[in-house]
Amino acid sequence: MDEIEIPPHFLCPISLQLMRDPVTISTGITYDRYSIEKWLFSCKNKVCPVTKQVLHDSDLTPNHTLRRLIQAWCTLNASNGIERIPTPKPPIDKTQIAKLLKDAKKFPDTQLKCLKRLRSITLEGERNRSCLEAAGAVEFLVSIIKSYDSTLLEVESIEGSEFIKASDEALSILYHIKVSESCLKSIIGNDHEFVESLVQFLKNGNYQSRAYATMLLKDIFEVADPIQLISVIPEFFGEIARSLRDQISQQASKAALKLLVELCPWGRNRIKAVEGGAMFILIELLLETSDKRACELALIVLDQLCGCAEGRAVFLKHGAGLAIVSKKIFRVSHMASDRAVRILSSICRFSSTSRILQEMLQVGVVAKLCLVLQLDSSHKTKEKAREILKLHSRVWRNPSCIPSNLLSSYPSS
User: Fold this and answer.
1) DSSP percent split of the chain into helix, strand, coil, nearest 5
2) Could you give the CA distance from residue 313 to residue 310 in angstroms, rounded to a whole number?
3) Partners of residue 160 on adjacent β-strands
């Protein structure tokens, strides 16, 4: 196809590829369905890509005339290796989904069949996911998740057929729908049991369901109100920490870290997280991972947890805590260095004993703080490092543990 010139009006303005399912939007511009659905529903854009006009609706009208012209052109060029594009199936609409859900609620024995169909619809495209939400599929899936329905459902996967619980399948579909913020707010605003149900999946689900539950909880608490953020039960933090410890998937681990970042500043959540075992798990994560974003998020949470006495006490019980936090300075990013210095500042200001100060000398924390003053760091980070060094200058100044090239930058008290 590269050697044949395709008529320009057969090309999608977004992908610049031959259109397989041309559809026209309200501005009169035609795009390939896959590309414009991704633009509108996945990227959440509200303007026409070509004209930049604001779109007041997201209706897509099939351009049958153009599609037939493209098919005819493909047929004429078949000898050049051009395959005729198939006639696309008509997209499902909200009414069809609503009827499917109504039948499933009326006849419970059809629920498994309904779940299979919902999975198929979800995987067919971005537009379908919006239709599912608008038709009430989210509420239907939430009801199955809350029921912990253990009926086995046969589903097709890459490896072949497998049997999973209906509630696990409902959770998977709900995650893949990519529920809108307004819908998530509505769910947690009207249904306090749903979050508890997801915690049960964290506790008792298989690895895949635990990953989906973690990522859904991250999305939920990003739109939750302060009362909901403050009132998270202690068990929740223990399960999120366990999810981090088990390294279910990279995506789930980052979602768990973002959850902790979102929750820890509120109420007694820092103490709940410490009591749930998050502190040791975060330190172990820093010891094991080299992923930049994971390190940054872990340091943000550690900084938050070291803001309370309980957090600092547990941090200092871990033999590698001070060393690994110091090691991350200059090895991850400016933001990570800033957070690491903040953690060390919290320890030095509120939890320093003669033993801790000696340990900081021995594991290279003091030398690293001197290096912060010499190398490229933000003004705030340098000031924080200078304050720490001045605070304990009577113990740390002129010791043999600091190299002479760094000792020269030690601030005078």
Assistant:
1) 65, 5, 30
2) 5
3) 157
Count Cβ neighbours within 10 Å for each residue of 211-244 and write b for 16 or more, e otherwise: bbbbbbbbbbbebbeeebbeebeeebbbbbbbbb
Question: Exposure string (b/e) for 118-144, b if CB count within 10 Å is 16 or more?
Answer: bbebbeebbbbbbbbbebebbebbbeb
Alpha-carbon span 365 to 351, nearest angstrom: 15
Sheet of 30-32, strands arranged across? 30-32, 22-24, 61-62
- Record the tokens describing residue 291, joined without a space: 């992923």
What residues contact 297, with CB distance under 8 A and at least 6 apart? 254, 257, 258, 260, 261
Q: Can you tell me the distance from the alpha carbon of 242 to that of 260, in angstroms, rounded to the nearest whole number?
A: 13
| Dist CA 378 CA 135 (whole Å) | 51
CA distances to 153, 220, 263, 290 from 228, in Å = 34, 10, 10, 33
The Cα–Cα gap between 21 and 155 comes to: 28
SS3 101: helix
Separation CA 372–CA 328 (nearest Å): 12
The Cα 159–Cα 139 span in angstroms is 30
Lookup: tokens for 413: 């008290």
Question: What string of pLDDT tens digits covers the 413 residues of the chain?
Answer: 557 889 999 999 999 999 999 999 999 999 999 999 889 887 788 999 999 999 988 888 999 999 999 999 999 999 888 999 999 888 888 899 999 999 998 888 888 889 999 999 998 877 788 889 989 999 999 999 998 766 766 666 555 666 778 899 999 999 999 898 999 999 888 777 899 999 999 999 999 999 999 999 999 999 999 999 999 999 999 999 999 999 999 999 999 999 999 999 999 999 999 999 999 999 999 999 999 999 999 999 999 999 999 999 999 999 999 999 999 999 999 999 999 999 999 999 999 999 999 999 999 999 899 899 988 888 999 999 999 999 998 888 766 667 777 777 777 65
User: What residue type is 39 in one-letter code?
Assistant: W
Q: How far apart are CA 70 and CA 373, in angstroms?
A: 66
Sign of CA dihedral 62, 66, 70, 72: positive
